[in-house]
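Milestone M4 deliverable, item 7.
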Amino acid sequence: HQGVAFLSKCLLHNRTLHSLNLSYNNLTNEGLFLLRDALLTNRMIHELILRSCRLTDQAAIALAEFIAESTTIQYLDLR
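Output delivered:
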């Protein structure tokens, strides 16, 4: 989750990325929560791809809450 913590801080200042693909990374629940909080602040990311990230049920609930709050995410891939 340390890498996601750094990425989350960067996303707070992002003005150019529109798509974020973190596929095939072992995101922990804590990492996902950090990412979710940063993406709620970031208004540039429209596409979030999290294929094969071994997300848990708890992470799925956090993502569902995030989608309900987000006004910018248009595409989410959780395959």
